[in-house]
UniProtKB/TrEMBL annotation:
<feature type="domain" description="FAD-binding PCMH-type">
    <location>
        <begin position="116"/>
        <end position="294"/>
    </location>
</feature>
<dbReference type="InterPro" id="IPR012951">
    <property type="entry name" value="BBE"/>
</dbReference>
<dbReference type="Pfam" id="PF08031">
    <property type="entry name" value="BBE"/>
</dbReference>
<dbReference type="InterPro" id="IPR016169">
    <property type="entry name" value="FAD-bd_PCMH_sub2"/>
</dbReference>
<feature type="signal peptide">
    <location>
        <begin position="1"/>
        <end position="17"/>
    </location>
</feature>
<dbReference type="InterPro" id="IPR050432">
    <property type="entry name" value="FAD-linked_Oxidoreductases_BP"/>
</dbReference>
<dbReference type="GO" id="GO:0071949">
    <property type="term" value="F:FAD binding"/>
</dbReference>
<dbReference type="GO" id="GO:0016491">
    <property type="term" value="F:oxidoreductase activity"/>
</dbReference>
<dbReference type="InterPro" id="IPR006094">
    <property type="entry name" value="Oxid_FAD_bind_N"/>
</dbReference>
<keyword id="KW-0732">Signal</keyword>
<comment type="similarity">
    <text>Belongs to the oxygen-dependent FAD-linked oxidoreductase family.</text>
</comment>
<protein>
    <submittedName>
        <fullName>FAD binding domain protein</fullName>
    </submittedName>
</protein>
<keyword id="KW-0560">Oxidoreductase</keyword>
<dbReference type="Pfam" id="PF01565">
    <property type="entry name" value="FAD_binding_4"/>
</dbReference>
<dbReference type="InterPro" id="IPR036318">
    <property type="entry name" value="FAD-bd_PCMH-like_sf"/>
</dbReference>
<dbReference type="InterPro" id="IPR016166">
    <property type="entry name" value="FAD-bd_PCMH"/>
</dbReference>
Length: 570
């Protein structure tokens, strides 16, 4: 699409100092292509005044800010809620992963410059198809980078971008409960607008005795990156991943075409959107997904530490729990756990429709071992009347964390056959002061549709017993040094290879992955990559949608200043 402005730009370049680089998107400050104030105003009017010019939310903490005046009280308030996801998802621009804010206007660092950095330049607070179509047209006409922003949770910064015009979907909050009828599914379903968040969907259907397939993070966008990239949670072993439950997508493609995608219409787009990554194939307006009938749910949580015991003893118990989880996942349960170098926490182990006796049997070997080692621990097991009640009581509220992420899907065969090497790898990782979070599940036992290839979920999920996410914490006070030099190098070169070596040819969950993942096409998409790329090319031939390590993203490179430039045939 860069070529469209070629002639005009060539003419203008004769009279401006800096010749335009035609392979790049137009960037703020590029006089020959960036829209004038009048053009932005006209565009704003055309979308009913929904255009928002970004004001970095941290600017109230910066004495030299050009955006908003410094305000000590507002700054103190902001700092006290900086770790709340709401601080970011209520904003049209702030990414939760601070690496992708690049120090620009960090409220915790008032003496660094307050700049726009990688934040989107403008966002349209979209509520209609028309808003989305007009926004894409504005970006196309002026060759501006497009970003689809929902809640800003993405660990790979895929909902932000320097110099971009964002479609901000957060306020698309419609919810409808449907009796869905199709050749492949008859039953209850929920149709959610693109901005509906996990807890909102749960709350809306709970009174009907129904439950959606949700994440552990309570504030993620249900129809956004979560369901579009896979989507794991405590119902995964019973009903599959979030993507496995999608019945329809309503979207606007790059050309501005409004489309309903399902297994029978635009089935290629339906396939790609259900697991093949967010922000890549179009702007989703709504998602329709299966709902399930509520039932009693039993959950347990457990915490023990290294206090008064050797590391060998501690890891012996941890290993026993990881092994026992296999029987839980085979019954339809999920275990969410975390381990550091001195603490192991199960938060929680959940068995929907199960009994206390069944779950107790899973926990027994671990509890017996804790008792035989005389270790103290806290343990609770409770039967709740519904999954909803279990989720509310047993899932710790998620917050924004200052940690660099990486991950790996660990196949069942590794847990069954080489558990010792796996646990040794986790032990080495935690020795580096990193946090390991595991979700033990089985998403291969349920038939998800008319055939096995109904969606583009990374095939590595179907073999997985555990999804491991590793977090290397850093201090924002020494951001550049800690993150780029120490943290990322540690993650990519030392920690993840320990897990990759155990899982050759395996994969990682793109939503909980290392931003520097080398073999990402294979790791994130497996054998689906080529088909995903051809669908992407069919509906977005001019590569309007770019996300870091997204399908087809190799045509672009992001320069140091954030400018997106074409490196292949664009
Ligand atoms: C605290 C926390 C907890 C988490 N817990 C879980 C968990 O339990 N299970 C799990 O599977 N994952 C979890 N994740 C990862 C999560 O799934 C991803 O961060 C996901 O990308 C969030 O999607 P979003 O739409 O809310 O966020 P955004 O960051 O706004 O968007 C993510 C991606 O989706 C695209 N996108 C969003 N909306 C649309 C749309 N309408 N149309 C097209 N593209 C769109 C964006 O362009 C971007 O590429 C967690 C992350 C965090 C930070
Ligand atoms: C768009 O118009 C609305 C309503 O007139 C106004 O409040 C808003 O500031 C405008 N946005 C920009 C970027 O000018
Ligand atoms: C990120 O920060 C570096 C160092 O300050 C700067 O050179 C670069 O231009 C910034 N990039 C973006 C996209 O903000
Ligand atoms: C965005 O639009 C919604 C209505 O769809 C409105 O309630 C909300 O206040 C708007 N937010 C901003 C920041 O403009
Ligand atoms: C759903 O019901 C229709 C008839 O209303 C039927 O043709 C179809 O086979 C049913 N689908 C399933 C999966 O049961
Ligand atoms: C464990 O579960 C109990 C009972 O629901 C709850 O009170 C406690 O806070 C939970 N502990 C952790 C660490 O999640
Ligand atoms: C509820 O759980 C019982 C077993 O405890 C099971 O027989 C029944 O099928 C479950 N119902 C639903 C709707 O899952
Ligand atoms: C645990 O405590 C009991 C009684 O105090 C003692 O007999 C036993 O040796 C202890 N076991 C271990 C492994 O320390
Ligand atoms: C460790 O031992 C000390 C001293 O005996 C005791 O006070 C403490 O409670 C023990 N901690 C645990 C977790 O068992
Ligand atoms: C936010 O989290 C960081 C660690 O990630 C912690 O150091 C800080 O105290 C937290 N801030 C608040 C206000 O909770
Ligand atoms: C999932 O569970 C089924 C039994 O229900 C089992 O046959 C299968 O091997 C399991 N798959 C994985 C990947 O754990």
């Amino acid at each position: 699409m860069a070529g469209r402005l070629c002639l005009l730009a060539l003419l203008l370049s004769l009279v401006t100092a800096a010749p335009p680089d035609m392979s790049c998107h137009c960037f703020p400050g590029d006089e020959w292509c960036w829209p004038t104030v009048q053009e932005w105003n006209a565009f704003n009017e055309s979308v009913g005044g929904k255009l928002i010019a970004t004001v970095p939310i941290g600017s109230v903490c910066h004495p030299d800010s050009i955006y908003t005046p410094y305000n000590a009280e507002a700054c103190a308030n902001l700092l006290s809620v900086w770790n709340d996801t709401a601080t970011h998802y209520e904003s049209s621009s702030s990414p939760m992963a601070s690496w992708f804010a690049n120090f620009s206007c960090d409220p915790r660092l008032p003496h660094t410059p307050c700049t726009m950095g990688p934040l989107v330049q403008y966002a349209v607070n979209a509520s209609t198809v028309d808003d989305v179509q007009k926004t894409l047209k504005m970006a196309w006409d002026h060759d501006i980078r497009v970003v689809v922003r929902n809640t800003g949770h993405d660990y790979l910064g895929r909902s932000t971008g320097a110099g971009a015009l964002a479609v901000w979907t957060h306020h698309m909050k419609d919810i409808q409960i449907l009796d869905y009828e199709a050749r492949w599914y008859n039953g209850s379903a929920i149709k959610v607008g693109a901005g509906v968040q996990i807890m909102e969907a749960m709350d809306a259907v709970h009174k009907e005795g129904l439950v959606p397939v949700v994440s552990n993070g309570q504030t993620l966008g249900y129809a956004g990156g979560f369901s579009q990239s896979g989507g794991s949670g405590q119902l995964a072993s019973t009903y599959g991943l979030a993507a496995d439950n999608v019945l329809e997508w309503e979207l606007v493609t790059a050309s501005g075409t409004y489309v309903m995608a399902s297994p029978s219409t635009y089935s290629d787009l339906y396939w790609a959107l259900s697991g093949g990554g967010g922000g890549t194939y179009g702007v989703v307006l709504s998602m329709t997904s299966k709902l399930h009938v509520e039932n009693h749910t039993v959950s347990a949580n457990l915490t023990f530490t290294t206090d008064n015991v050797s590391k060998n003893t501690f890891w012996d118990v941890a290993s026993t729990f990881i092994k026992s989880s296999v029987s839980l996942t085979d019954m339809g349960g999920v275990a969410v756990w975390q381990v550091t170098d001195d603490m192991f926490m199960v938060v929680p182990a959940t068995l929907p429709s199960g009994t206390e006796e069944q779950l107790q049997k899973v926990m027994r070997p671990t509890l017996d071992l804790l008792n035989s080692y005389n270790m103290s621990y806290t343990y609770n097991i409770v039967t709740y009347p519904s999954f909803y009640d279990s989720y509310r009581a047993m899932t710790p509220w998620s917050t924004v964390t200052d940690a660099q992420l990486g991950g790996r899907l660990i196949p069942r065969t590794v847990v069954d056959q080489t558990l010792t090497s796996f646990v040794d790898a986790l032990r080495t990782i935690t020795n580096h002061k990193s946090l390991v979070s595991g979700v033990s599940l089985n998403v291969s036992r349920i038939r998800i549709g008319v055939n096995d290839n109904i969606n583009s979920v990374n095939p590595a999920w179907r073999k997985a017993q555990v999804n491991i996410a590793v977090g290397t914490p850093y201090k924002y006070t020494n951001f550049a040094r800690d993150v780029a030099k120490a943290n990322q190098v540690l993650m990519t070169r030392i920690l993840l290879p320990l897990l990759q070596d155990l899982t050759p040819g395996g994969g990682a969950y793109s939503s909980e992955a290392d931003l520097n993942e080398a073999d990402w096409q294979r790791s994130f998409y497996g054998d689906n990559y080529n088909r995903l790329q051809s669908i992407k090319n069919r509906y977005d031939p001019y590569h309007m949608f770019y996300t870091l390590k997204g399908v087809g993203s190799t045509v672009w490179t992001e320069r140091v200043d954030g400018r997106l430039c074409c490196v292949e045939d664009c």
